[in-house]
């Protein structure tokens, strides 16, 4: 999830050829485009991977796909209510869902972004999430996918 259309397009282009079913959802799409993507999403069998790249404003309210089990948060937010809204999309009941995961990306070299991340950590804790972030796991390395 991101807030910038340019970032969304960048991610879509990077995942083309890597992810099987890429679904794009933004509030800027017209009704026909949005309907087409939602029908594509609904028609993906439960046992097939799907990658939804969307803006927070679109996914944040009114979106429901109980199969969602993972969130990659690639934008800075700090308010607990927004965080709760976004991760709440993962907590719909589905027979194939074992657990939910949130991957939260932060640029710790930018003080304001680091502060926002720290506020999110408090929000995650109040929502019952367990952080796997520790000294051994706190790495700036990223797997090279592309």
Automatic annotation (TrEMBL):
Helicase C-terminal domain: residues covered: 4-93
CDD domains: SF2_C
Gene3D superfamilies: P-loop containing nucleotide triphosphate hydrolases
InterPro entries with a match to the protein in the record: Helicase_C-like, P-loop_NTPase
Stored Pfam families: Helicase_C (PF00271)
Stretches assigned to coiled coil: none
This protein's name: Type III restriction protein res subunit
